[in-house]
Design brief:
The complex is a heterodimer of chains A (about 120) and B (about 140). With about 120 residues, chain A is mainly alpha-helical. Chain A is about 60% helix and about 5% strand. Chain A has a two-stranded antiparallel sheet. Chain A starts with 9 loop residues before the first helix and ends with a helix. By secondary structure, chain B is an alpha+beta fold. Chain B contains 2 helices and 5 strands; from the N terminus they run αβββββα. Chain B has a 3-stranded antiparallel beta sheet with strand order 1-5-4, with no helix packed on it. In chain B, strands 2-3 form a two-stranded antiparallel ribbon. In chain B, α1 runs antiparallel to α2. Classes of the chains: A mainly alpha (about 120), B alpha+beta (about 140). Chains A and B meet through α1, α3 and α4 of A and α1, β2, β3 and α2 of B.
Chain lengths: ~120, ~140
Amino acid sequence: MANDSLFGVHAAALEVRSQRMGLLASNIANASTPGYKAQDIDFQQALSAAENDGGFDAQAMQASTKYRVPLETSMDGNTVDLSTEQTAFAENAIAYQTTLSFLNGRIGQITRALKGE
Amino acid sequence: MAGQPLTVFQVAGRAMSAQLVRMNTTASNLANAGGVASSADAAYRTIKPVFQTEYDKATGLATVDVKQIVQAGEAPTKRYDPTNPQADADGNVWENAVDETRELVDMMETARGYQNDVQVMNTAKSLVLDTLKLGQGS
């Protein structure tokens, strides 16, 4: 899957974006849980792992998942900053949709080539 | 539900349930604010849910569950009020231990958290639906 040149980097990117959405959703879900430490995916590292090491598996995700450095400390040990998480979530959703439209374009291109239009 | 890998919908859905439990406890607390009782034991005490993160090792996701609901906050305060029909033999009543300001702040935070979870779920839903339609636009 990783060396699939049909979709280029976009297949791996979609996978990483999807995982990152889940992780950011976890952060937002735990916004008021005492002691929860916010996490995020290092997108660069995750994408190169997905491209080179044959797919984005659980191990690759664990390796590229980092704890977020909190902007301010809270008394209950929670490091979720809602505005940061919401911004990251929105940005990630748009990037996911961008990847989708790249994939759609590629599929359309190939379909047209196959039909001989 | 346990044993199955978490999805982003379960993450947001269970967080919404947890926030709803919190909203219910806040409503119970506010409903009992200002009430009195004949003894310290009979007086109402503030209840609070205890949130706990639920990790899913397989997917790396984490959602939140209500571990338990505990009594928290101050003890009921004794007040001398012999004309009150609920007063005991010494003419004392005990006021329910509810800090209304704190409950209202808690309620706002709960509503905000719930709204965020709804938004996460909506975004995830539309992205999944878009993914399902992959390749059909051409």
